[in-house]
Amino acid sequence: MRDVFLTDTTLRDGEQAPGVAFLAEEKRSIASLLDAAGLPELEAGTPAMGRDEREAIQSLVEMKLAARLMTWNRAREDDVDASLACGVGAVDISVPVSDLHITKKLRRDRAWVKERLLRSVAYAKGKGLYVCAGLEDASRADDAFLLDLAESVTREGCDRIRFCDTAGLLDPFRTFDRVRRLAGAVDLPIEIHTHNDLGLAAANALAGVRAGATFVSVTVNGLGERAGNAPLAEVVMGIEQVLGLATGVEKLSLIELSDWVARASGRPVPVNQPVVGEMIFTHESGLHVDGVLKDAETYQPFDPAVVGRQHHLVIGKHSGTHALDYALRRLGIESSREVLSLLLPLVRRKANQAKGPLTPDDLWVLWRDVEKGFYAAAR
Fold first, then answer.
1. How far apart are CA 308 and CA 205, in angstroms?
2. C-alpha dihedral sign at 309, 315, 321, 325
3. What is the pLDDT of residues 203-230, one digit of tens each?
4. Given a cut of 70, is residue 363 above it in pLDDT?
5. What CATH number does the domain located at 282-378 have?
């Protein structure tokens, strides 16, 4: 069961990240992993790009995935025809809707945009397609024009409206207001599509859901143009942990997906990347380690086992005696409070010089030297 439907656009918007290009077999592997993880919809690409892109999309159609495959299209009948030729059953028909984009990029006016969008939606619906109207740069569009377009495509039989924060300029408060206004004006599902230029993509996606959006556009690792899109893993955990809603996504698949797309895209995952980063459940600070050792919930937003991870403690510059004692016990060493107090400054000095945590061997050598010196002094 799902309360929110995630539409993954790694294969379209994600691949538009500068320097990223997926081979056809890589696209199939990513699609297969996303499908197995329970993503209900995948945006597979842009057929108008040419024969290679169409062949790659056709190969995804031939996989007969459980996920619905959608393609991205301009408001042109030949774009829709190219999507039909690929065999998909769903299309996003996108038009710029802000005056900035309409006048500067298209060099047209609002009437032209409206006419092209309505004509293309009607054409696609006449071909039996599921149609999402993608409103590019909706976050900077005039409210009255935005609502007029939404009401008009509804009358044409459109199935969904995509509200795009194309330049990543919104904050969660304005996102909530804009999406709530749109959702209240039309009886169609709303999709929130956010970009991460100001680091707010995931927060804006959640704000959109609170405001009434039931579809959210995401990419694995937040891959996408400029600073990227709303990251799949962060949106899944945010919706489920913060909003208490179901996405139907298998959370144990998130790290495998992240690692695979990182390799295919050539974009490594930062160790502190939320949810999927290698070190997000790693603790060094003395206060934090003390808390985690007493009760893991003191310093965790969710149980790491949910995504197949566990807590990991390292000994470094900020470690305290509790962490030191714990680490030594794991090495089979019982140590007195006096030895620990002598050992701690040496550990911190060593970590500072190494600019990183101590290895078990480093710790054992320091403990041995302190232990010998302590008992020699005692004699």
1. 25
2. positive
3. 999 999 999 999 999 999 999 999 999 9
4. yes
5. 1.10.890
Among 12-21, 108-117, 210-219, 297-306, the range scoring the smallest mean pLDDT is: 297-306
Q: Where are the domains of the chain?
A: 5-265, 282-378
Phi, psi values for residue 41, rounded to 5°: -150, 135
What is the CATH code for 5-265? Answer: 3.20.20.70
Extended strands (E) in 102-229: 130-136, 160-165, 190-194, 215-218
Burial category of 90 from C-beta neighbours within 10 Å (exposed 0-12, middle 13-18, buried 19 and up): buried
Backbone angles phi, psi at 31, to 5 degrees: -60, -40
Strand partners, 87: none
Residues 6+ positions from 25 with CB-CB distance below 8 Å: none
Residue 216 vs residues 11, 106, 151, 203: alpha-carbon distances, Å: 16, 27, 21, 12
Using CA atoms of 164, 167, 173, 176 in order, give the dihedral in degrees to the nearest 10: 0
User: What gap in Å lies between CA 97 and CA 167, rounded to an integer?
Assistant: 13
Q: What tokens appear for 341 in the block?
A: 């107090």
Return the residue matching tokens 């790693």: 282
Measured CA angle at 180 (ends 126, 133), to 5 deg: 20
Place of tokens 């999709």: 191
35 phi and psi angles, rounded to 5 deg:
-65, -45
